[in-house]
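Hey, quick one: can you model this chain's 3D structure?
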Amino acid sequence: MRRSCVLFLPVVAILATGLVAGADRKDKGSPDKSRAAEKGGQAAPLFDLDAFLKANDRNKDGYLSRDELPERFRHNFNNLDTDKDGKLSRQELARGAVYLQSGPRPSDVVFLLVEMSDCDECCAEELQIIYDFLRKLDNNKDGKIHADELKASREELISKRIAAIFRNLDANKDGKISREEAKGQIKRHFDELDANQDGFIDRGELTRAAAENPRNLPARQGTPLLKDKATESPRQR
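Sure thing. Here's the predicted structure for all 237 residues.
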């Protein structure tokens, strides 16, 4: 049976979730990183730091520049370069050993789409959606995506999702969602969303909830409240 990109996408979505979770564990104070810190910042077992430094220190100055650091780790150079002198000492490499462990990245999802599907036409369509969206992120057209551009796009997406929710749920068009109007996750988490406990959810309350970091929402198990049937995807807008 031939695979199709459409059937393959749910698998990619599940994998993407795992990749993001893995990235969070590595980059945001993971247990592995904590254990490394408890051991005085020593590299993980089976990782020979001295051999790594010797193999990549091309000019033999005892440090690794950005160009000397293997390409697969360069995205973490700024995390490793704690004194911001543009080079990595052995001590910095030891402290940041968690950043030198090879592993999947969220961006690998795109490579999986290209490499693993045998339905070129439908995968090209999916990749085009990704490409068009990334081009819109680059507001100043310099060929790069900056943190402020990402933030602006996130705020725009949240605003559109909230507008979609109100279009679908605010039956009497009074600018608020009552308990009776609420559906799905909005209904299940109504009391949490209704911050002022007035019996309604307004746009401000929904915006604040949408902007919360999923890691700060243990009761919701990190599930974005706006990911519901009442919302639209970027493709539908």
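One thing worth noting: Strands lie at 64-65, 87-88, 176-178, 200-202.
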